[in-house]
Amino acid sequence: ECQQYFARPYSCHIDLLGEALGMQLMSAKCIHGLALILATIGIATKVGHLGGIGACEADDESAGAVCEPSSLVQQRQLFIAADIVGAEAEREVPCNSFPRPVCSVDPHRRCFYDPTCSAQPPWKRGLGCNAGGVGRNCRFCGHGKLQACPETCGAVADGDPAEFALLSGDVYNRTTLSDDVLEEIGWTRGPEAFDPHNPRGSFDLARVYTKGCRHGYCDYCMVTFSATNDATDISQGINSSLQTYCGASGIRAGVVGEMRGFFNSENWTSVTEALSPQKCCRVYATGWSLGGSLATLFAFCANTQEVNATDPDKKEIEGVSTKVELVVWGEARVSVEPLYNGVHGQCFNGARYSISDKFAESRPPSIEAQLDAIELLAQTYELIEMAQALAIWKRLVNLQALLLQKQKQEFKALLDTTLIELDPSVAFVAFSLALQTNFTWVPDATALWLDYLNLYEQEYQYEYDAVPGFGRLFAPALEYEPLRHPLGKSPAALPLQPRACSNTATATPLYNTLQVNLGFLGFVFEVGAYQFPNHFLCCYVAAFGGFSVDKCAALFSNAIWAVCPHPTFR
Known about the structure:
It contains 21 helices and eleven strands. By secondary structure, it is of the alpha/beta class. Strand 6 and strand 7 form a beta hairpin. Helix 8 crosses helix 9, helix 14 runs antiparallel to helix 17 and helix 16 packs parallel to helix 19.
């Protein structure tokens, strides 16, 4: 009965077998016998695809090529007939995206998980598929006439920033995702490290999440850091002094201190071990707000090739993949020069995002509002009793003179220079008043600025996230993607402008210092709490398109913190 199928060269046998199976022209006994013969001579085409016994390591285009049977093949022979007719249930396979010697008794023969083995037709006619008979999507590589083993871990798609944003809320100590939500998006919680620094029990958290794992190897591994959640974080976030970190100078000291707090955690080693290239295909560092700043420091130190392995910071990230990808949103800038990926000038894989408002960005406060703000700043520094007040008064006089003389270009140039020079002073006053610090001058200054913001309220309304625009530092070397506020009203006719990784991108967004700082202060006065305008977790989740604002809030255990209010100060 079977001999008729061997009247032609064996390269045709597979097509004949497939036709016979489809038409049910062959008995199960004949199918079984033919499959054994085909497996013995090493044909890896439709038989392998149908779940056969493969173990084929030969070039299926070379007549007479022979595959060496293995004990694993022999163990599978009892199941061949059921395999071919599709009766065998899908089973777990020992291979994964990282090439390893798990499909053969020979420790030098590696295989990897390749879903193209199940394609129609399989790539390279299925050459190397069903390696050792352990599973159709396990493919031998790296020896004989087989393809070279992939240097990377396979074709794994980019991670989803909407999922990353949700997980950043899961490490925030006021919100937690339910297990059902984690299962829905396919992520599993992994090792975590705490940085306790508050006697009332507040803590910061770094946690690993994994996705697509098989036999100890995962398609995705991600470490995400919690955002600002207590007074210590606020203090570190506004600390503008600079330190050296992982061989790079000019890094914000507050963020460095926060990062090193994690290094001192007793569980930190479990986090770094979970992010090794032997366990992960793609490794991401992610975070929102302060968490994004921490993720930047983590990815920089993990990837850098320009610091000795004995550097104390580098040692704390030893063993982590050196190809960490960076995805951050709403993060504060951390360095006087852009941090890079591996070597100077090289861009990170990934992206950074911020909620944008092209309408407001293109319309700074009026000249009158800006000059009145500079005058009020001078008065504030008189209350502080600092000599800087005199310099601000002199600059204001010069600006007013140029304006009266209608020297528009000279006026604009001097105003731009003045705002750059005054940026630290404006930020100091705005944050001091927002926090209602114990300085003696704060009550009187609060009254002055509250009257000012009531007068010029319309001048300081915007829909962008204020945090990425604070200060004159630089973002990392990373692609920049602006997002629309999901509940905003900024004209859609003004297109957002993504920027490829470049020197321009690292300085984007660039806001008018009065607009961003005083808009923040006005927002605090309005809501009565220390919060940044348009800097909310669910605003980002919705802006990424993963879930609606209402759906996002319902995903967390404490929805009061997982919110996205309308831009109220607009």
